[in-house]
Design a protein that fits this description.
Elements (H helix, E strand, L loop, with lengths): L4 E10 L2 E11 L4 E5 L6 H8 L7 E6 L2 E2 L5 H7 L1 E4 L11 H7 L7 H14 L1 H5 L10 H13 L5 E5 L7 H16 L3 E6 L2 H7 L2 E6 L2 E6 L1 H5 L2 H7 L4
Parallel strand pairs: 3-8, 3-9, 6-7, 7-8
Antiparallel strand pairs: 1-2, 1-4, 4-5, 9-10
The structure holds adenosine-5'-triphosphate.
The site of adenosine-5'-triphosphate has 12 residues, from β2 and α1.
């Protein structure tokens, strides 16, 4: 079986600085795969490259069997790859409902869009309760929910989440992680970038530890959770 996403020997540079130095990994349909690692390891750069926002200097990306090389970002969304970026990037002056509508900008099936907006409200009831309010009035955690809901509005085959737990209270973080588990149960395939290694490894089928642009270690999330070097470096144990 071919994977939904296959990344082979991917390299990405900012000018002369190589941020991603030849990484390979794949995501099977139905899996949650996580990239963990410290600041500057190249996780965000990897996601932005998969979205078409950055150009790789070399390597191959196959999504659903098709090469993404040279495909513009909006086309990549229409192929089924959605990105909920670091820092959320919601539109603060637009209402919650309008933000969700924008996530469906490539779709024309009105009834389907309405159904998916309702699905976002079912997933995150607070968004439904406050649908007519400006999104800027939401708390950080609620904005993260909106960013996830918006990314789901494109009906992605693969949902990429960049640091969904950043800056959230433990309770909000728990809610976001539970939602990831729920989305997986509903059949969504997820590529998750996280600094919170404990949370990400607990729920990932497959995990890759990135260090200065390379993948240092790969394995099932629960296995890495018990790996001594991972525990020392990423889980703060002696
Ligand atoms: P973080 O969690 O801090 O976002 P990360 O693992 O996602 O870390 P990246 O943001 O991908 O890491 O950064 C990888 C490397 O590329 C870092 O050394 C960073 O300083 C560098 N970098 C990122 N964006 C740029 C840019 N626009 N121009 C130059 N260098 C950049």
């Amino acid at each position: 079986m071919t994977a939904l996403l296959e990344v082979e020997d991917l390299r990405v540079a900012y000018g002369k600085i190589e941020a991603v130095k030849g990484i390979s990994f794949s995501v099977e349909a139905g899996q949650v795969v996580t990239l963990i690692g410290t600041n500057g390891a190249g996780k965000t750069t990897t996601l932005r490259t998969l979205s078409g926002l950055l150009k790789p200097s070399s390597g191959q990306i196959l999504f659903d069997g098709k090469p993404l090389h040279g495909v513009p970002a909006h086309k990549i969304v229409s192929l089924g790859l959605a990105h909920s970026p670091e820092g959320r990037h919601i539109f603060p002056r637009l209402t919650i409902a309008e933000n969700l509508q924008l996530g469906a900008f490539l779709r024309t099936d009105k009834a389907g869009i309405e159904k998916d907006i309702q699905r976002a409200y079912d997933l995150f009831p607070i968004l439904g309760e406050r649908r007519k309010q400006a999104a800027g009035t939401l708390s950080g955690g609620e904005q993260q929910m909106l960013a996830m809901g918006r990314a789901l509005m494109s009906q992605p085959k693969l949902l990429m989440l960049d640091e969904p737990s950043m800056g959230l209270s433990p309770i909000m973080m728990q809610k976001i992680m539970e939602t990831i588990v729920e989305l997986k149960a509903q059949g969504t395939t997820i590529l998750l970038v996280e600094q919170n290694a404990q949370a990400a490894l607990s729920l990932a089928d497959e995990a890759h530890v990135m260090e200065v642009g390379t993948i240092k270690l790969s394995g099932p999330g629960r296995e890495l959770l018990h790996d001594e070097s991972v525990r020392k470096t990423y889980l703060g144990e002696d």
